[in-house]
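Need tokens for this chain, all 250 residues.
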Amino acid sequence: MTQPLLSIRGVTTYYGNIIALRGVDLDVNEGEIVTLIGANGAGKSTLMMTVFGNPRARDGRIRFAGEDITRKPTHEIARLKIAQSPEGRRIFPRMTVLENVVIGAFIGSKTDDEAERLAYEALQRVGLTDSQAHALAGGLTTKQLRLMELARALAPRPKLLLLDETLAGLGHDELEDILPIIQQLNRESVTIVIIEHTMHAMVKLADHFSVLDHGRVIASGTPADVVKNPAVIEAYLGKKWMDRAKDQVA
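Here are the structure tokens for all 250 residues:
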């Protein structure tokens, strides 16, 4: 069998003396879109940050493309073609959109010119125009801001893209605009792990769900299976979801 692109085995992470992750196992196969779901504080963002080396796993192993990255520093992990768009990501409102994206492109570039070329390419991939590239980031709409953040993560041309709440704050129509962009990136050989609370969108988007509760994975499988799992309904989705689950995955 082909090995997973990302393999997490028995990962336990602490914040001080508080256990944030408890023996987490997760596989992400190349070409998949995997969604991490769970209530606030379940450990989703911590798991994503632990993959990226901050915080570090206290126990367990994380492998990317067969290479053990558990103890690697964050900058080395980034150079292995893993990129992250974290929750609460920082933008520079007085810089242009292009300049914000160039910051991300430096990870995969040897020269300033190469970084700018990769930044332009990333902006085109998410559908932002040349005129938008030279606008100040502080004047962007919420949708444009999310696209810029996505472009910044894409600029170093990652194989694995970790997205935390990328769709946050978007209305229904804006979601419908951005979901096809994420799907197209996936078709262009970008494997994606995404944290998102918009379940209706994730059921359409994801190949695989993993559900965290109090730092543990309590369910993992296809969206159709996971959203009908009684443990998931009790811990996260709520009982009302049971009546609608069949329609959501039809």
